Amino acid sequence: MNAVIGQSGTGKSTLADAFGFLADCLEKGVEIACDLKGRGGYEKIISQGADEPIEFEIYYRETSNDPPITYELSIGLDRYERPIVEKERLRQRRTGERYGRPMSFLFLEYGVGYAFKGDNSGLDEEENQEIGDKVVVELADPRQLGIVTLGELREHPRIVKFKIFLKNWFLCYFSPAAAREIPNAGPQKYLNGLGNNVNNVAQFLYREDPKDFLKVLQDIQTKLPGIKEIKPIKLENGQLVLEFLEQGFDRPFYSQKMSDGTLKLFAYYLLLHEKDARPLVFIEEPENGLYHKYLADLALQMKNSIKGMYSKQLFITTHSPFFVNALPPDEVWVLEKQKDGFSTIKRASDFQHVRQLCEEGIELGDLWYSDYFG
Predict the structure, then answer these.
(1) Backbone angles phi, psi at 281, to 5 degrees
(2) What is the β-pairing status of strands 313-317 and 2-5?
(3) Are 177 and 299 contained in the same domain?
(4) Which of 139, 169, 199 is the C-terminal boundary of a domain?
(5) Tens of pLDDT along 172-200?
(6) Are 237 and 91 contained in the same domain?
(7) 192 burial class (0-12, 13-18, 19+ CB within 10 angstroms)?
């Protein structure tokens, strides 16, 4: 779990959108991704005064026993000033090797290069030695990521797994107004970014295992203030809707009549109860619209949702010291803008005085609010 804090303008939303930009590059291609979601095109994304291309590096491991994979992506402009993938590389050490330079098993420049088949092959650049079956690759459109095409081929299992990992990232922008929409009938496995398919997800969970879903609802209702019971009701058209029975009322309410805070909390807790957890979830400012006393419990529930899990990471940006109070210093990252306009990021535990004060029992959010750091 990683909570990112910092003053306004330090880059928390930019960090979140960096994840979103990569996900959009995978789905739409780099040119379209540059213009989506108000980004304004390549010239608005690249840092002011920078002549280098936009570069990303992702360090990824499928399981705790697998050698880590490094993914490098470089995006620049072609001769027509259009965004293009300049370079794309995947590297990994051979199974059983702990030291030495990883071998490249995918390398493309402007859509042309090579890929190695199988799980334990690649180009040893130090020895200039090819290990395994190498295939020449030439993409029809260099504005698309190579992992999109090669990630569909069974002979490239590492690329397939990495593509699935990237494709299943989830960026959360829950909106109570959207959650009040009446969706079309039909079960859906996952909540979408706006959270307006809550009833569809409930229908999916109920269809998969009604008893287990009722346990989930019973667990969630204990965490929603003023809610006595949540009941799934199946309509004649097959759609499932949720009834919320509030304390002091005899008749239940449907989600369209619930408060913004209750709807947001319900969506967050439903997200945390997902069966097949998505590998990376990014939530921006969960405190918006929520009473401050609910935040510590929400933070603890988020921590519990990933406890003992290797394959799930949770990122949160927040301005709330009440949320941060529930977290240890090694789970909180501080963004600070420097004089050159760029921001640096540092763990709260890297501040020695912060770590020592937390060890004495002072809560981290209180230290942050009191300007001891950040």
Answers:
(1) -120, 130
(2) parallel
(3) yes
(4) 169
(5) 988 877 777 766 668 889 999 888 888 88
(6) no
(7) middle
